[in-house]
Write a structure and sequence with these properties.
There is one protein chain. By secondary structure, the chain is α/β, with parallel strands linked by helices. The longest helix has 21 residues. It is globular.
Length: 126
């Protein structure tokens, strides 16, 4: 891998250095966990998967085969946003694997913080 291939410096000149928190996003099966764990190692940070932030009610609903609504997802998004806040306050580099496919979800996770960056994984359909 060439140096430029893993350079985490943002394109935004108002932000210096790599992000404090990187959110690896993409559809199911796109490699978020695999890439996220590798990225966390390179950043010297920790890795977390978005699924671990679901409240018990969401888990039960999904187990029963019912899709989550945007309202169901709010506590989940807020739990991840709170964890991002803690990581940033502690100076802890971190990578979060999360589909975050809707703009409103991404906006809620970032909350205007320039230390949070998204990496979108896409690839050909199998």
């Amino acid at each position: 891998m060439a140096a430029a291939d893993h350079d985490l410096r943002p394109q935004d000149p108002d932000r210096a250095g790599p992000p404090g928190v990187a959110i690896v996003m993409g559809v199911s099966g796109s490699g978020k966990t695999t890439i996220g764990k590798q990225l966390a190692r390179r950043m010297g940070g920790i890795f977390a998967d978005a699924d671990s932030f679901h409240p018990p009610a969401n888990i039960e609903k999904m187990k029963a085969g019912h899709p989550l609504t945007d309202a169901d997802r709010l506590p989940w998004l807020d739990a991840m946003a709170a964890q991002i806040t803690r990581w940033l306050a502690e100076g802890q580099p971190a990578v979060l694997a999360c589909s975050a496919l809707k703009r409103v979800y991404r906006d809620r996770l970032v909350a205007g913080r320039k230390q949070v960056a998204f990496l979108y994984l896409s690839g050909p359909r199998r």
